[in-house]
Amino acid sequence: MTNEFGKTEELQTEASCSPTKGSAEGDYESEFTPAETKKLISRIDRRLVLSVGVLYCISLMDRTNLSAAAIAGMIKELKLSVLVGTVSRYSVVTLVFFTTYIVFQPPSTIIVRYLGPRVHLSSIVVAWGAVMIGMGFAPNYEALAALRVILGILEAGFFPSCVYLLSTWYTRYEIGKRYAVFYLLGSLASACAGILAYGLMQMNGLQGHTGWRWIFIIEGALSMALGVGSYWALVDFPDKAHKSFKFISQRESEFIIARVNKDRGDGNVEPFAAGKFFRAGLDLKIWGFALIFFNSTTVTYALAYFLPIILSQNMGFSIGASQCLVAPPYAFAAIVMYGTGWLGDKYHVRGPIICFNMLLCIIGLPIMGFHKNANIRYFGVFLTTAGANSNIPAAMSYQANNIRGQWKRAFCSATLVGFGGVGGIAGSLVFRTQDAPNYRPGLYACIACCLFTLMIVGVQTLWSLRQNKRADRGEIELENDGDDKKGFRYTY
């Protein structure tokens, strides 16, 4: 079938259209034809994926616009080049965000279930927009750092909630493309952020504010406006969506739950139990997925926070050119991201996609750091940006395909994104001021993260193959969390 993204996908009718176990609702296959299913999934895609994707645009833009403001005069005006111990104040400002971002993520996937995505997500978007505006008026380094801490608390609730929400609507081999489009929109925002920042810099002196302050003020106001509008645009969980502005009917809601149940057996809402939620932490593979995400985000955040600075200091481009040259690598990353997501869904693979993306980084990082020609080093930026950013939705899909149970998925989403926050701290520190202009220790650290990912995927793949073969022989029942799901196999 062809969905709204213009790509062919298998509906897996037999695996997706059967009713929930014990349902007295009748034969879903006879009630929902392939054409009706296609129309329903397309409607969900347009409303759900695009709404959370647009919000993620501003989330990523608001989280990473420090680098644009840095070269626009913020470092000089707030004296952020001063060292605090062995790191600069600028690095401290970038990393304090992640201290609260990590801590407040696990409760978010519980809160979003009770408040609902529309209330929870729209509220925190409006609140962090207000914090962004405050950053535009920060009088000193201490105030800016404090506002970044508050921003971390608010944004902690966004990403894991979106990852969890998306996973409840789609079957395992539909989710890769959706995660890719969700994160792709963020990459496009990153591509445009530098150009937008360059335009906002031209407001320098207006109302007595320097150009870098207008970057925060205008982008914060935009966030608040989109946050208010998102209350009506966002979609609830499948079991409640028919009550939210009648987005889908109750019958359609039951159909979505039934096809997820047929695919992996966790479409129905489970009562919250703290023991079940935290017991998921005993599953070692969850931490393997989290480490893969950590390695990927270390590279992506390093690029987000330092790429304009590297382009300016290391490659010799002007400030204006450095702002604008951020865009093409992220646009290229969006193409690679969707292409690898589509291939992963089509061929039901995840590990090989992650390895391919990491190989792009392993090739791109040495070119970016060591070649004598600045233009060729810029080509290395394309490969590194594409590989690292494409691995974010790939890792999310890898995790989503191999975890079952509503609250286990909630815990895993929070853990995955939490380790992404730890990667943000690492990414904030790898490119140190004293290593300018070559930043070689940071490049070595990023290469090490890529190699570590290849090792983890190799171990996870061998373990999954072994477990699947044992299940085929009838020796074990995979992921049987008391719901009697038969036939589940790990994806590798």
Automatic annotation (TrEMBL):
Residues 48-470 form the Major facilitator superfamily (MFS) profile domain. GO terms for molecular function: transmembrane transporter activity. The chain crosses the membrane at residues 48-75, 87-107, 119-139, 145-167, 179-200, 212-234, 286-311, 317-339, 351-370, 376-398, 410-430, 442-463. It is found in: Membrane. Residues 1-10 have a biased composition (Basic and acidic residues). InterPro entries: MFS, MFS_dom, MFS_trans_sf. It is a multi-pass membrane protein. GO terms for cellular component: membrane. Keywords: Membrane, Transmembrane, Transmembrane helix, Transport. Coiled coil: none annotated. Residues 1-30 are annotated as: Disordered. This is MFS general substrate transporter. It comes from Pleomassaria siparia CBS 279.74.
